Amino acid sequence: MDCHCIPYTHFPNATRLFVDCLYNFAQVREFYSYNPFDGESFRRAAEKIPQDQEFRRQVVGVLREQNRRFGAREHTFENLTKLQDPNCVAVVTGHQVGLFSGPAFAFYKNLSAIKLARSLTQSGLRAVPVIWLATEDHDFEEVNHCFVQDRDGTPHRLSYAGQPPVPNAASGSVPITDAILPLLDELHTLMPESPSATELLEHLAETYRPGKAFGEAFAGFMMRLFSEYGVILLDPLDSRLHRLSSSAFRAAIESAPVLTNALLERNRRLTESGYHAQVHVGDDFSLLFVYVNGERRALRMRGGRFVTAQGDTYSTDELLAQLERAPETISANVLLRPIMQDTLLPTVAYVGGPSEMAYFAQAAAVYERVLGRMPVVFPRASLTMLDPAASRLFGKYGISLPDVFAGKQPLRDKMASRFLPPGLTELFKETAANLEADLQRIQEALSTFDPTLVDAAETSGRKMHHQLTTLEHKAAAAVQKRSEQIERDATRLENALYPKKAPQERIYSGINFLARHGAGFMRELYEQIPLHSAQHQVLGF
């Protein structure tokens, strides 16, 4: 596997906040508690984690049961035993429960968390990796599909036709029906014919079965892929975990106006500093959702009450009573979710992508008032897989990944500059004009010297023009042929590396690469994952 890196300043749509987190942390220090590239940050974060052994025992008990159901093996149960020790910390990452594992960056996040946990353990800070399953997210349209490349390398969308039982149901609870079967059949026609692809398809058919829920299927597949690394999965839909984290929800209910004002102030500071606020916060903002007959509804603050767009209304006391009676019916929004997570877990670091790092810049204002501590926010690995065909085209045209990111026409112009002579058409026009002028002068000289030669000069001139025109047509045909090849090659590169005008890792499912590179793919990736290199990696297979 070949590897080279590019800085995020050359990466499409990299936000200023993310770039400064990586390269100029002093500029963003007020929005984060710890510098992710300072080794002492993890020890300082660990010192603030409470050591409540009984609480840990209860959380680990739930996780042990969940992971057994997901198919966990020996290494996961060993890590669960470690997690029960008050001196053990967690390195956490999380994902939406996307169809067939979702975008490839989910794999890179997991491996980053695994590698960071091992690195901390080797340095003397005992740590285990935990994957938070975002089963409560209710936008099913975000997780009901995935993209893979067909055998010609073209992006192909696979969409699950089943629907949630009620609008805005938690995605993790959506049942898988027979509508999954045509997708599994379709994968057989899209994936390469190889033993690794056959094995992968068997795993998918076993985990994504009718009768299972989306979250359970996702968890089962992830456990198959990462069980050897001892990952611990956490499904927050469990009512017991809502009860164990009820202190975070109670604070969000009782201190709703205070937390909203803190977030408004945080957003003001972000924008004044030239950054963006990932989550819009208005005066009626709350950190909560409520489940009503299985539908997840956002709560807003109006007139001192919590209300939904559908007309449900709750006083503070009513919502607190519901939290006590049925804690699973109260749900966290994107800024409260990490606080729920870290109420349950001894999180020393959260491994996230650019958007998640932006969420944490806002959520820090909630962390300060609810938990009084915050984890290290650590950037996940970012990778582009360069297959042999793409590698050959890079060499053929003398281009690199940023050239593909530059856009459709700039890419083609740079590729053409390698093979097409500049100004060729203009050169032919200029030559034809010069030839005509020279022939005219010859004919004028011959008309006074020997008029009988004028006709011969005209005939010779017509032949010269014909030969020049023929050469021009041949050159134009060669240019056209080269241009068509350039177009095919450019499209091939875009499909492979920048599909749908987005980085490869955000579009293609991880199974797209597993099918092509086999079981050893994950181990090779693990070896390549950088912990202290704030750059995007391009890996050539």
Write a structural description.
This protein is an alpha/beta fold and 541 residues long. It folds into 3 domains: 2-237 and 344-382 and 504-540, no CATH class; 247-330, no CATH class; 406-501. The chain is built from 22 helices and 16 strands. It has a 5-stranded parallel beta sheet. The chain has a 3-stranded mixed beta sheet with strand order 1-16-15. Helix 17 crosses helix 19. It is elongated, with a radius of gyration of 30 Å. The N and C termini lie close together (5 Å). The mean pLDDT is 93.
Key descriptive features of the protein:
541 residues, alpha/beta, 13% strand, 22 helices, 3-stranded mixed β-sheet, 3 domains
Quick summary of this structure?
The chain has 541 residues and is an alpha/beta fold. The protein is built from 22 helices and 16 strands.
Topology (SSEs and partners):
Blueprint: E1 2-7, H1 16-23, H2 40-47, H3 53-69, H4 74-83, E2 89-95, H5 105-122, E3 127-133, E4 145-149, E5 155-159, H6 181-190, H7 195-207, H8 214-226, E6 232-234, H9 239-244, H10 246-254, H11 256-272, E7 288-292, E8 295-298, E9 300-302, E10 305-307, E11 313-314, H12 316-325, E12 330-332, H13 337-344, E13 347-352, H14 354-370, E14 376-379, E15 383-386, H15 388-397, H16 401-405, H17 408-419, H18 424-449, H19 454-497, H20 504-507, H21 511-517, H22 520-528, E16 535-540
Parallel strand pairs: 2-3, 2-13, 3-6, 13-14, 15-16
Antiparallel strand pairs: 1-16, 4-5, 7-8, 7-12, 9-10, 10-11
